[in-house]
Design goal:
- The protein has 33 helices and 23 strands.
- With 1105 residues, it is an alpha+beta fold.
- Among the domains are: 198 residues, no CATH class; 141 residues, no CATH class; 123 residues, no CATH class; 34 residues, no CATH class.
- The strands form 4 sheets. Strands 2, 3, 6, 7, 8, 9, 10, 11, 12, 13, 14, 15 and 16 form a 13-stranded mixed sheet that branches. Strands 17, 20, 21, 22 and 23 form a 5-stranded antiparallel sheet that branches. A 3-stranded antiparallel sheet has the order 4-1-5.
- A hairpin with a 5-residue loop joins strand 21 and strand 22.
Length: 1105
């Protein structure tokens, strides 16, 4: 013990709690490892990189999720409440101070932050359209006038807001604003001013603790207040959920701190129960100290960097269950007075008997260690921690507590009796505080002697409970993964919504703050959107032409008189969704027909390339009503016109025509006039009426990655999974480009793809439109060509990892797929994806053969399946261990089988109570807890089985005959002088071991060596008497500890407390009544263990040898 006290401070490491509560919902399996690597790769993903070292700065993130209570999240009241709340956050003194402390180049993350409100409430920099045909907006969220939501959506979706896009603010399933749009996300960040982030982290931690967390928590409470009809004040129209760096950890630590304060209760209860049970305050204090040392030493021994909350749960269990080893050693020490006279002989006897006494406790500890096979890392850490702690508690009990028992008997107790007042002695050494367990045994035997009614009632109750529990759990749609917080807590309630968003990352570059809105037809390249007034036409009541009807386009051209040209290059721009629904061949054919009619004098009309190009959308505003509509703009390839007779055009011989191909059209652009002819676009073919678009339907995002490698470190119990760049991946290789395109072009139909986001397809079309080849020609610079592509397709950069030279080093392609129901179907879909990617990798060259795929939904379903499978495996292993320990203790198969039947009956009642009556969802955490408590429920019954077969034990295993303790021993115990003690003499009849309390007030051990001819009923009664005192005291202690756990904030703690309350209620009648009744009902009179009898039979059969 002294060595441990010296070693602990030398090897101690600070306790760091792992705040990742999602670890309870993540299995240590391939899907989870891949997802963790993908999330880790986002830390060093940048759409554009500069030459600074900002990527190396510590960046602390806060995510806030808003849910509209009623209606759409884009309603005025919801957006107004969101803006007011974010303004209140930015007005916090700590927020402003920390933002000013942050890296100046990255302060845009905290003021104004990455919020959609910045785009919804932009500040106008120009009151009027200037001469160039544009006006400017600043996206700082400070205006009072809203920008129409469809304009905001169009701007964010078209890539010019990079690194912002819709995925930053809206769920992955978002398609268009509607009444079903309920969620919105804002992200704020604080960046350390330099690489030494110690002071910055301390300042942020102080800000979180004192200002940010209380403000967010109060906002959560305020947004959940019910509507008060009698009050003028209306509650906010939103619900708030939040997560963030240090914020999650602080919230978990707050809950853990309050819950761990409750651990003082089990510690105090255990101390009091030990005080009464050991009948010594000093022994109780020392035993409690050894338990604390066992927990601390287990933490030092285990290879963990961060402690899971489940491991801290082991502290409760250790105080509730860990005293068994202490109590058993004290019982053996008391019994040793009947076995030997000298202290050395008594110690020898104690150490000989310790193996059998500690075997049930060690078996329980080993059952916890078996959780090492669990796929849920927190359960694994929990099992290994509590198992190691109990093993260490056994070691302390044998190696340290037994010597202290000797010191207490020889030194401390005599000193206390000599020096302290009698009343104080009665408190410190309550030797007379001993319940009469014989009355309990008598009452129990009244029921045990009627075994048939007892067993019939117990069997019927177990059968009904099991049937109902199985029916209820089977009716659940699917098992549940562990929940750390209660369901109503914002972390649990917001988890499904958080998972509907793509993972966010803080970019190094600010999104454009000032932008231009342009009038259509000006040909300005710097416009992010075009804006015009809606012309009053008969078709204004329609938003789009019916799919079965041809679309008539209103076209406008500029009259040109600057020069006479025989060759004119015509730019044709069309608006509306119809051009995008037609194939390029059909669209180009209709355009050529229209141009030929408009330029009737042209003797040649030809299109220069095969690919059209998307321009920034146009916003059509109806000024009287304020309603808007956003239409896409498509620019067709230049059309070359040849004329036999020169005609008027611009000075550069370039003409332009704008056509509005939706029912709504802009007023005539400045300098334009209506064309003589109209462009007509036919109805799209049935195949073009795509059913593969999400349309807001539920979907899952599947991500295929190239150039990212998975790395793992197994030096700790939980393991660490990170990402790195794949050195073999070379995007400049033509075979790599072909491999990336195949991933997007050769998707099997059984993958149920709704939509895809593959920049490589756009890159190929862009190259072909320029008259170049795909893959990039070997004599061209791939990386330079890609940079030119990104100028016109900035949104593609959000799927790329770029190095310091802005060269592509890794990339990803995302696919929206139809979700499947249940773990089996989801994992079957995962297998299809894995087979698809593996097949492509097997055919790819080494420069692109490392593609892999991940999906968050696979992680959840894999966790559920793997965790349940591993939990069932743990249950089987625990049952085998319990059976093995039972056989070692009793050497009797029949008694062990009956013991297991009783234990599973206890588990059946637990299942019934919690799953059928309390409505718990069946899952790996619940199954695991019941599994480990299975070993606890059978531990007291081992002693009963051992006592029943004791007379039949081989002579070599029998304890020595009774040897009464010396008079000197009693004199020392009573506080007398050793010199006055006489020699050892047998005590007269009536004063021996059976006579009750000795001179020190402690009862001597009862005679544990029954006669061979003892009746089974007498043996069972004696066993009930021996087991009852420990079982009842331990049950009371465990129930009181469970009561202390019940009010815990963390759900895993409170559920363990509920089981701790119920388990003793079931164990007491099961062990004291049902199991003895089962022994008597068997009609067995043979006292010899089965294995001993089998051994004798075997020896008789083999005697001829």
């Amino acid at each position: 013990a002294i060595a441990v006290l010296i070693v602990l401070p030398m090897t101690w490491r600070p306790i760091v709690v792992n705040a990742d509560i999602d670890a309870f919902r993540r299995a240590d399996a391939p899907a989870a490892r891949g997802q963790l690597a993908y999330l880790d790769s986002l830390r060093f993903m940048r759409a554009v990189r500069n030459e600074s070292a900002l990527s190396q700065r510590t960046m602390l993130k806060v995510e806030i999720l808003y849910e509209a209570k009623d209606g759409s999240v884009f309603s005025e009241s919801v957006l107004r409440d969101i803006r007011a709340f974010e303004q209140s956050l930015r007005s916090l003194a700590g927020w402003a101070a920390l933002c000013n402390m942050s890296e100046p180049a990255l302060q845009f993350h905290c003021n104004p932050g990455d919020s959609m409100g910045n785009y919804v409430w932009p500040r106008r920099l120009d009151d009027f359209l200037n001469a160039q045909g544009f006006f400017r907006l600043a996206f700082d969220g400070s205006a009072l006038e809203r920008l129409p939501m469809d304009a905001v959506i169009a701007y964010l979706s078209e890539g010019l807001a990079a690194p912002h896009d819709l995925r930053m603010f809206l769920p992955m399933t978002f398609a268009e604003p509607s009444s079903g749009s309920k969620m919105l996300r804002s992200v704020f960040g604080f960046a350390a001013p330099d690489l030494n982030d110690t002071l910055f982290r301390e300042a942020f931690q102080d800000f979180v603790q004192n200002e940010l967390y209380p403000s967010l928590l109060q906002a959560v409470i305020d947004t959940r207040k019910p509507l008060d009809p009698s009050s003028w004040d209306q509650p906010p129209a939103i619900r708030i959920y939040f997560r963030g760096d240090m914020l999650d950890e602080h919230e978990l630590l707050e809950a853990l701190y309050s819950d761990m304060l409750l651990a003082i209760g089990p510690l105090f209860i255990s101390l009091v129960v030990a005080w009464v049970k050991l009948r010594s305050a000093l022994l109780a204090f020392v035993g409690t100290t050894f338990l604390c040392l066992a927990a601390l030493l287990a933490y030092i021994i285990l290879p963990v960097q961060e402690v899971s909350p489940a491991s801290l749960l082991g502290v409760f269990l250790l105080f509730g269950l860990g005293f068994s080893s202490i109590f058993r050693m004290q019982e053996v020490w008391r019994r040793s007075r009947n076995e030997a006279e000298e202290h050395s002989q008594r110690l020898l006897y104690v150490h000989r008997a310790a193996l059998r006494e500690m075997l049930p406790v060690a078996g329980s500890a080993f059952c916890y260690i078996l959780l090492r096979d669990s796929k849920l890392v927190p359960l694994r850490e929990f099992g290994v921690f509590i198992g190691t702690s109990i093993f260490l508690a056994c070691a302390f009990a044998l190696l340290c507590f037994v010597p202290f028992l000797l010191m207490h008997e020889r030194t401390f107790r005599p000193w206390i009796r000599r020096k302290c007042p009698k009343k104080l002695v009665g408190v410190l050494e309550p030797a007379e505080l001993k319940p009469d367990w014989s009355d309990v045994a008598e009452k129990v035997m009244l029921a045990v002697n009627r075994p048939k009614p007892v067993l019939a009632g117990a069997g019927l109750a177990v059968a009904v409970a099991l049937i109902v529990a199985v029916a209820v759990t089977a009716s659940q749609p699917h098992p549940a993964l562990p929940e750390v917080f209660p369901p109503e807590h914002h972390r649990e309630a917001g988890r499904p919504m958080m998972q509907s968003f793509a993972p966010s990352s803080l970019a190094e570059e600010e999104a454009p703050l000032t932008i231009r809105m342009c009038e259509p037809g000006r040909g300005l390249d710097s416009c992010v959107l075009h804006w015009c007034d809606l012309e009053n036409t008969p078709s204004n009541n329609l938003t789009s032409w019916p799919a079965s009807q041809a679309a008539t386009c209103r076209c406008y051209s500029q009259p040109q008189t600057a020069a006479s040209c025989t060759n004119i290059s015509l730019s044709l721009v069309v608006s509306g969704p119809r051009p995008a629904s037609l194939t390029q061949d059909v669209l180009h054919a209709q355009a050529l027909s229209f141009v030929s009619a408009e330029y009737a004098d042209a003797n040649s009309v030809e299109i220069t390339s095969a690919t059209s190009r998307r321009l920034q959308s146009v916003v059509l505003e109806d000024w009287p009503s304020g309603t808007t509509q956003v239409d896409p703009l498509t620019q067709l390839p230049p059309i070359n016109l040849g004329f036999a007779t020169a005609r008027r055009s611009s000075s550069s011989c370039e003409d332009s025509i704008y056509c509005y191909c939706s029912p709504k059209s802009c007023t005539t652009p400045s300098g334009y006039r209506r064309t003589v002819n109209d462009l007509t676009l036919p109805a799209p073919p049935d195949s073009a009426d795509s059913t593969l678009q999400p349309q807001g339907r539920p979907s899952l995002e599947v991500i295929v990655l190239f150039g990212i490698s998975q790395r793992e470190d197994r030096s700790t119990l939980s393991g660490t999974f990170t990402a790195g760049f794949d050195s073999d991946f070379d995007p400049a290789s033509p075979w790599s480009q072909r491999a990336m395109l195949r991933v997007c072009n050769e998707l099997p139909s059984e993958l149920n793809i709704l939509s895809s986001n593959c920049w490589i397809q756009d890159f190929r079309n862009w190259l072909i439109g320029r008259g170049q080849k795909f893959p990039v020609d070997r004599f061209l610079d791939f990386h330079q060509t890609l940079k030119e592509f990104l100028v016109g397709h900035p949104s593609a950069a959000s799927a790329m990892w770029l190095n310091e030279a802005n060269n592509l080093t890794a990339t990803m392609f995302t696919f929206q797929v139809i979700p499947t129901d249940g773990a089996d179907a989801t994992l079957a879909m995962r297998d299809l994806w894995l087979n698809y990617i593996d097949g492509l990798n097997s055919e790819a060259t080494s420069t692109a053969a490392g593609a892999w795929v991940t999906c968050q939904a696979w992680v959840d379903m894999e966790a559920l399946k793997e965790a349940l499978d591993s939990s069932w495996q743990v249950l089987i292993n625990v049952s085998l261990v319990v059976a093995g320990v039972g056989i070692l203790c009793t050497l009797d198969l029949e008694l062990v089988l009956g013991l297991l039947v009783v234990a599973f009956g206890v588990c059946a009642f637990i299942v019934f109570f919690f799953f059928a009556l309390c409505g718990w969802s069946f899952g790996p955490w619940e199954l695991t807890i019941m599994t480990v408590f299975l070993s606890y429920s059978v531990e007291p019954a081992f002693q009963m089985g051992y006592d029943f077969v004791m007379p039949g034990m081989p002579q070599g295993l029998q304890p020595e005959n009774n040897v009464q303790p010396a008079e000197g021993m009693r004199a020392i115990a009573a506080g007398g002088d050793l010199a006055l003690a006489g020699s050892a003499h047998p005590e007269p009849p009536g004063t021996g071991a059976e006579a009750g309390p000795s001179a020190d007030g402690l009862s001597k051990a009862s005679d544990l060596h029954p006669k061979e001819d003892e009746l089974p009923e007498a043996a069972v009664k004696r066993s009930v008497h021996a087991v009852a005192k420990n079982l009842i005291s331990n049950s009371i202690k465990l129930m009181l500890c469970g009561i202390m756990l019940a009010p815990c904030q963390l759900r895993i703690f409170s559920r363990l407390g509920a089981i701790s309350i119920l388990l003793p209620v079931l164990c007491l009648p099961s062990v004291l009544v049902v199991y003895p009744a089962l022994i008597i009902a068997s009609g067995r009179t043979r006292r010899e263990p089965d294995l001993v009898l089998m051994g004798k039979v075997f020896l008789d059969k083999a005697s001829w040898l």
